[in-house]
Please model this.
Amino acid sequence: MSTTFFTHLRCSSCNRSYSPHVIQAFCPACNKTLLAEYDLDAARRFLTRDMIQKREGTLWRYRELLPVFDDSNIVSLGEGWTPIIHTEKLGRELGLPFLSIKEEAYNPSGSFKARGLCLAVSKAKELGIAEVAMPSAGNAGGALAAYAAKAEMKAHIFMPNDTPAVNIKEASLYGASVYLVDGNISDAAKKMNERRSATSWFDMSTMKEPYRLEGKKTMGYELAEQFAWKLPDVILYPTGGGTGLIGMWKAFREMETLGWISGKKPRMVSVQTTGCAPIVKAFRERRRESEFWQNAKTSASGLRVPKAFADTLILDALYESGGTAIDVSDSELIREMRHVAALEGIFLCPEGAAAVGALRQLVMQGDVKPADTVVVFNTGSGYKYVELY
Model:
């Protein structure tokens, strides 16, 4: 018996519907992202916020709003339900008394990537997929390898040569086949597709399958619950492929339909670095699609994504929320890593540190006010990037 209200997949562009019972990637008609849809009217009659709050401290507390039909296919390592840390001293320094960090480093394999890959691997297991592949700049590869190991599934990870050493080693230790490639994540994707064409490997690339998004959306559900169902005013999110930003925006819409939240939704801030800022450039030019960023280079490996597959959905969320996009230099983010560690005892990853740097800019510009409730996402553990020091 199904324990989910998941009904079908819908193309984010042309709105065609697809079956959730067979293997799907992206829309074959227009090559755009597929979104999981739920019978939210039925869910509203059955689910209450009180029911959710009594459940286990993992993302599976939102079980009925996740796309796995049979519980026996769930592949879990205890992901989700990460803490909100009130950063009082940093907030005092910035004039923001209501500043917090959502600490995603507490996830399995040390990053928020565990959320998405948990769902993607669980659904792959349900659909009978035996081998999976993805290009990765680091943390996603480690997370896929971990969940594939748990699911007794073979993983193939293609990484740039200069990926942080910990990410390369952890993926190998989990039993994945790791292929190192000259260039960036786009070059790794090209190499993967060359190898994959003669195999049955399923492509787990960001937003090129429908289910990683569903794991990432749980960050939005958690924020609402942790803030007593009143969302923060501003969310700063480091954006490479943008799955989490898109997922949270999807979660907020679902919760509105469920009647769990009301009122104004947060302003979403996409954070990138000056060495790779395709979303920032597109936002400033008021476009709905980004251009490929040539010669992408940054210390924040998770942000070295020259062109996100779902860039239109990222930009839509920024425009709809009244948000913005900010880029930060590598020197700024490394300075913030050191500063926040000494000030708050939180070892930010470079991507999370970039978000703090972006917040500092927004405060100086007057775009974030002292009365605003602000959440910065630290998407992974700084321990994976010690070579930056």
